[in-house]
Amino acid sequence: MNTLQPKRLRGASLLLAISALTLSPRAFAVSKEMVQLQTQVQQLQDAVARLQQSNDERMGVMRDLVQQTADSVNKMSLTVGQLQQKLGSQVDAQGAKVDQVSGQVQALNDSLDELKARLQRIEKSVSEVQSSQQSINARAGETSLGVGAPASGSVTPADAVPGIKATRPSKNTPPPGFPSDDSASEQTPVRSNAESPNSGAPPVTDLYQTAYGDYNGAKYSLATAEFNDVIRFYPDSNYAGNAYFYLGEILYKQQKFLPATKQYDKLVEQYPGNPKIPAAQLHKGQALLALKQNDAGVRELRSLIQRFPASPEATQARSKLSELGVRVSASRAATR
In this predicted structure, what is the pLDDT of residue 33? Predict the structure, then answer.
């Protein structure tokens, strides 16, 4: 028994040694692969860290660029706003100047109308004086020639001469040295029906000046009635055309745009030579635009520019069309 135990122990140790020898390469190979895997994992982690860092840097750069772009956009929007404000103020200033010039021109036209009325009154007075003077001269000539009826029992020098028949100047034959009836009618202006009183109405100049004074005094109801009287009593006078214009102005100031356009149309259609037609067309176009009838308003303003290109009203019409973003003249395709 004692001899067998050592042999057994030696066999066991031998087996352990053999197993150790057989197992050690596998353990070494496993540990080597683990080390390689750990190395690769570490390398991947390093690469991911580097990518993360690079991405963070790029995102930071992008943030800076976006912030700079936003700042630039804000500056540009501020600059554009300031430019728009300046342009708006300039346009308003130009519009105010144009309105001021238009008002001055309108005042000049009104003053011219008053001067024309005064000149007509002066011409009327001069013609009456000339007629009175001619009648006085005619009577004086007849008296100097003995045209008057002879007294009873008296004889004229022609009757006293035998063989000479006495002749008396007829009523249609002027005395020597005086103009004939035809020349007198040419020298004395004949008052037209448009200026002559109708049915006991006051003179057209007085009636018109009264209406115009009430219009300037903002007495629109009274001025409307008086302008209608001018049209009713003197429909063929140029003052009737002015009356239609101011009737339209009264309605325009009261924002009754549609009736105002009808009054302007009466002026343009019935009195083609009236100097207030440009202002009437301008205000008609503005009234149509106020009524949201943009196409009709643009056509009216273009017609004004075409008919009166050098007038102050045409300048206002061009400014209004530019403000609306519309061409001053219609395109060829639109006019066909």
Answer: 87
What's the confidence (pLDDT) of residue 110? Answer: 73
pTM, full prediction: 0.46
Tell me how far apart the alpha carbons of residues 212 and 242 are, in angstroms, rounded to a whole number.
10
3-class DSSP string for 250-316: HHHHCCCHHHHHHHHHHHHHHCCCCCCHHHHHHHHHHHHHHCCCHHHHHHHHHHHHHHCCCCHHHHH
Helices 257-270 and 277-290 cross at an angle (nearest 10°) of 150
CB atoms within 10 A of CB 232: 13
CA atoms within 13 A on the CB side of 186: 4
CB atoms within 10 A of CB 317: 27
pLDDT of residue 173: 38
Q: Give the containing element (helix H, strand E) for 150.
A: none
Burial of 36 (0-12, 13-18, 19+ CB in 10 A): exposed
| Six-digit token string for 26 | 């596998």
The predicted structure's pLDDT at residue 109: 74
Tell the residue number behind the tokens 């008053």, with chain if given: 114
Q: Looking at residue 300, what is its pLDDT? A: 95
Which helix (H) or strand (E) segment is 84 a member of? helix 4-145
Q: How far is it, in rounded angstroms, from Cα 312 to Cα 98?
A: 8
Give pLDDT < 70 ranges for the chain.
1-30, 120, 127, 130-131, 134-135, 137-200, 330-336
Three-state DSSP state, 71 = helix
Best CA proximity match to 320, nearest among 298, 304, 299, 335: 298
Contact 297, 289 (CB under 8 A): yes
CA 203 – CA 195 distance, rounded (Å): 7
